[in-house]
Amino acid sequence: MLKIDWLIQRFQALLGPSNSRSGCFTLLLAMSLSLLMYPALRTIGLQLHAALTGSYISGTHSVAFVNCPNEQIARDIARVIMDRKLAACVNILPKTSTMYFWKGEIEEASEILLLVKTRTSKIRELSDYIRSMHPFEAPEIISLLIDQGNPAYLKWIEESVPDG
Q: Of 3, 8, 64, 149, which is most buried by a Cβ count within 10 Å?
């Protein structure tokens, strides 16, 4: 016998024969609503906990990696990102050597790497904007969630990048 059948039989025994059909429906409805509401309730609970304790909610902020063909383009992209308040900070890392497949061939290039610190809620807007101005056909824009960090630094990111 399946566990759900056993559970329904136990529930019917508790309710008696007259209420078993409506009781089963109520039980299934309650279980379904609980499963559907769990993500929202968990998020609200985490935000409430963070507000009361001052703790960080993992994944609120992200670091995006963006490769650029040269330093001038990297600086131009970084400046626009900052002007539009899409990031709190952009590190421009010096020339890196890169190997990659492009159109079936192994290519080599020198690139400049941007490390962009921002709110996770801004990643889509940041990515869309970079793609609109980047010279590469398929620019590298990869983001990673920040799990933990210096609370003062994470608070600074939050204050520097408006949400909304």
A: 64
